[in-house]
Amino acid sequence: MRRIQFIELHDQSWFPPSLRDEVIDALQFGLGLLKPYGSVAALLGRSIDFARTQLIVDMCSGGGGPWPYLSRRVEDPTQPVHVCLTDKYPNLGAFQKLQAESQDRITFCPESVDATNVPGDLKGFRTMFTAFHHFSPQQARAILQNAVDDGQNIGVFEMTKRAPLTIALMIPWSILPLLFAPWIRPFRWSRLFWTYVVPVVPFVFLFDGVVSCLRTYRPEELRAMVQTLTENAYRWEIGEQSGSTGEMAITYLIGCAPARP
Predict the structure, then answer these.
(1) Are 136 and 256 in the same domain?
(2) Is 115 in the same domain as 177?
(3) Nearest one of 32, 35, 40, 41 to 74, comparing CA atoms
């Protein structure tokens, strides 16, 4: 199955911001409910230890990604990690809520951040969850090259996959908003309208979920991409991490800068 570079609706600049926030809040609820990235906690924790940093710069964060439950799983008990959420279209309401709930362990950048050109003052281990597939091969390479050029470590993680079974799972995934919309916080009547009366949120879940699968890079494609980077002395780990029985495999790419003398 070849990779297809198609659009996801909620990524588009013309997609109404209020609707984007409804979709992102529902996505965040689904990630918190299913916790698909728990299986990479140990792998990411080892990489953070190797990088000798407790600062995380999360890119394309959406509504916060897995960090509300993942942050405590990857840290050394004596050295808690601090996560800075960033996004091209920052969901400030969701970010502020997470910062308050985490007691400032999770903070955010309020300005728009381009993952291909991260501002120099944002230093830390860069992460991306369920986002790398949004970018064309040229843009994806630019994200990795920017990390290398800035001497920053990076971890990319994807729960989607170009596989018939994963694509089929997008059908039950799109049903989640119909089941749980009234329990997503903060409660909004508009969310019920766009979920049940005019079911935009479930439709976007299904459409963008299928497209995400079709766009996801396979490990061999990530290895080929890394080989094209310049001034590249990084240690790269690329593969698939499976969790316990019933958990989907997570595709990962981790790049760590060479140890400084």
Answers:
(1) yes
(2) no
(3) 41
50 in the same domain as 25 = no
CB atoms within 10 A of CB 5: 13
| 3-state secondary structure at position 57 | strand
Neighbours of 209 (CB within 10 A): 20
Enclosing domain of residue 62: 35-162+217-261
Residues 148 and 226 in one domain: yes
191-200 mean pLDDT:
97
* Alpha-carbon gap, residue 211 to 176, rounded angstroms: 18
Q: Which two tokens stand for residue 167?
A: 């694509």
Dihedral angle over CA of 8, 12, 18, 20, nearest 10:
30
Q: What share of the chain is helix, strand, coil (3-state, %, to 5)?
A: 50, 15, 35
pTM over 0.90: yes
Q: Tens of pLDDT along 18-32?
A: 999 999 999 999 998
Are residues 261 and 228 part of one domain? yes
